[in-house]
Design goal:
4-stranded antiparallel sheet; 12% helix; alpha+beta; 1 helix
């Protein structure tokens, strides 16, 4: 005897969940005020390549991989 698996359709139309879009305004305000550090790719002298860094308000940065601190302007 062969088992039948019921056909299930993907949700569509009114049955589809609406994606939640976060409000980025408060985060942008915190970054502008210097309360939270921004992140981005920058040159890491220890790794000798571009790595992901925490970019501080004073212009310095900290590498997320090796944790070395690079002063502003370097």
């Amino acid at each position: 005897m062969k088992l039948r698996v019921p056909f299930r359709r993907k949700p569509h139309g009114r049955h589809r969940a609406t994606p939640a879009v976060p409000d980025m305004g408060p985060l942008a305000d915190l970054i502008a005020a210097g309360a939270v550090d921004a992140n981005g790719y920058a040159w890491c002298p220890e790794e000798a390549r571009s790595m992901y860094h925490a970019l501080h308000a004073d212009g310095s940065r900290t590498c997320w991989t090796c944790r070395c601190d690079t002063p502003a302007g370097v």
